[in-house]
Amino acid sequence: MNHFYLLKPQYRLRGYERLPYALTFPKKGKVRFLKKEVFDALSLCNGKIDVMLPLVPEDMRAIIDKLEQEGVVAPCEQGSALLPVQEYKKYPARYIRMAHWSITGGCNYKCKHCYMSAPDAKYGQLPHDTVMRMIDELYECGVLSVSITGGEPLIRPDFMEIVDELLKREIHITQIYTNGALVTGKLLEQLDARGIHPEFNMSFDGVGWHDWLRGVDGAEEAVDRAFLLCRKMGFPTGAEMCIHRKNKHTLRETMKHLGEVGCRSVKTNPVADVGEWRKNGYETVGMDEMYQLYLDYIPQYYEDGMPLAIQLGGFFMALPEDPEHYDIPMYKNVKDPERVTMCGHARQVMYISPEGRSLPCLSLSGMEVQEKFPLIPKEGLSKCITDSFYMKMIDTRVSEFNERHPECRECEYLRYCCGGCRASALGTSPDPYDLLAVDEACCKLYRDGWVDRIIKRMHEIRPEAKM
């Protein structure tokens, strides 16, 4: 009896620089990196090789049996063949899991805190043909997922053409970041017809204060409508809340309200002192004040029944579906910090600015240092993510940081902070280009005892919960 196997059609054989063996699942934007022996076994699952032949080692047949149990391969008729798109392809770049892409620098709102001065379209937007070429480059470099943002991405008249080109290139769309004003039933129907239901992540900046920050009357009513519409039509939603001196008292009420309109998660951060906020001289909330606000809210969150998942900056995170655990996002706890990079997140997720600049994260937008990062339309994405200032930053090691700051090497908290966040550090550094600046917010979290206070507070209100 012959035994032929074929890789299931949803999977692709791929490889990246330094990671040559991978199995991707484009529809979900997932990748599984493989040992060479597993990849070699998969290579036999092409419908042409009888795996029971004596020349096929027993251990390789065992791997194929396991892959069949996992649903990766299936028995087939002799002569079956892989689809052309499934065949092995080696990408000319390092692995980047996702691109967070600002497809426009323009907006239909007049937000007082806009880091990119979107009301004035300071960074403009790339023309349609350039955007199409960049999608092709994302595909050729093996980027599996994209989240779409702006400005306000829905103002682009070619928005659905961009969606279609991403889908054509098997690039998974995870999220659409929007102010909600242009979220309509027609838009959701168009996405549903394409078989996708990305999360709509919408800004909501405090009950009663959203209009003020967004600079448009009726903004709060519009985003509430969008949340409810998404819930009705089966689209998940998330939110981002920017906290400032005027709206900080609404934190508890805002969280409850977002839960009521179907929002499943929210991330909060203080308004950054960049862009329009700095231009207009508005006052930010200090670190101690913000941390105390977060600490005071934690017991209220549990009293209110954990209405949605929360991430209070790098201070605290909790999920309703896992009520017996919580997290402190800035708490890393690595055995040997000298060997790790300072930002693991940026090694897998890149940000593309409206003018096509390759940045480690969105938080660097509006900072002077962004001008040092490469432009994809000029340099090409492959070069940007293999040999550029972008790679220099995301490859920065804690060991380099410690050479600059020997006092940090001796700090008892180094294994937990690993030097902190580079964007946060640059935001307070007197040298706007210093990649090795100290993250004052992270230092304060540890040295001023805020981590200990979080743990103590959680022990008081939920002693069974573990970090």
Strand fraction: 15-25%
Which percent bin holds the helix content?
25-40%
Mean pLDDT: 94
Main sheet: which strands, in order across?
15-14-13-12-11-10-9-8-7-16-17
Extended strand count: 17
Computed structural class: alpha/beta
CA gyration radius, whole angstroms: 24 Å
Shape: globular
Sequence stretches where pLDDT stays below 50 over 5 or more residues: none
Major beta sheet summary: 11 strands, mixed
Query: Helix count?
Result: 19
Distance between the termini: 54 Å
Give a short overview:
The protein has 19 helices and 17 strands. It is an alpha/beta fold.
Textual characterization of the structure:
With 467 residues, this protein is α/β, with parallel strands linked by helices. The chain has 19 helices and 17 strands.
Topology:
Elements: E1 4-7, E2 12-16, E3 19-25, E4 30-33, H1 36-43, H2 58-69, E5 73-76, E6 89-90, E7 98-102, H3 128-140, E8 145-149, H4 159-168, E9 172-178, H5 185-193, E10 199-203, H6 210-214, H7 219-233, E11 237-243, H8 251-260, E12 265-270, H9 275-280, H10 287-303, E13 309-312, E14 316-318, E15 326-327, E16 349-352, E17 358-359, H11 376-379, H12 381-384, H13 389-394, H14 398-404, H15 406-409, H16 414-417, H17 422-428, H18 440-447, H19 450-461
Parallel strand pairs: 2-6, 7-8, 7-16, 8-9, 9-10, 10-11, 11-12, 12-13
Antiparallel strand pairs: 1-5, 2-3, 3-4, 13-14, 14-15, 16-17
